[in-house]
Amino acid sequence: MLKMLMLIKREIYDHIAYFLGAIIFSMIIVIITLSATHRSDNHDAPELAVALSFPVIIILIIGFTSMGISQMYADKNKRISAFLLTLPVTRGRILAARIITGILAIVTLFVPLIITTIILYGLLVPPVPVIKGMIFDIFATIILTAIACYCIGLQTGWMTGRILPPLAGLILTFIFASIILIKGFWPQVWLLLIIFIIASVVRIRQKFMKTPL
Q: What is the dihedral of CA 30, 35, 38, 42, to 10 degrees?
């Protein structure tokens, strides 16, 4: 457990810029939410705030793709894993620490917004199950999409060259996010996202275990 914590700490330190970005943009989204709520005279304030936050959230989803690319690209070019393997750790732990770090960055972004929305919902909106369920559906879809895009980044980060990995990652992210937005925020979409995430993690693990470091 201590070795895993040390690996996670190292990953956070190496990619601290993404955590700082998540904190800053999380605060921006919270401010947008509070501002929209303050100016709204109807009971749709929390949903309106979430809708107004979409452009920022889309930018951040792209950021999570970039984080995945950065983790794998830096590992490949700086031979970070090759160095870590000289220590008493396994490839599986290195990869697990890397993925956990990415998920922690996603949590860092969305938890403040979720807490803010729940508080505003309790203060301003009558207990309508439909509205509450809709807010849950939106957040669940966005978070799963962020994880899926992060997985895209992890996969494309192995590509050779400096331009191809980010270009391929961003193109795939835009296509994937567009499909999700077209499909909507429904449990069927969650199933698609979960299947994609699981398949991506399996593929990433297979490639990470077999690729020379």
A: -90
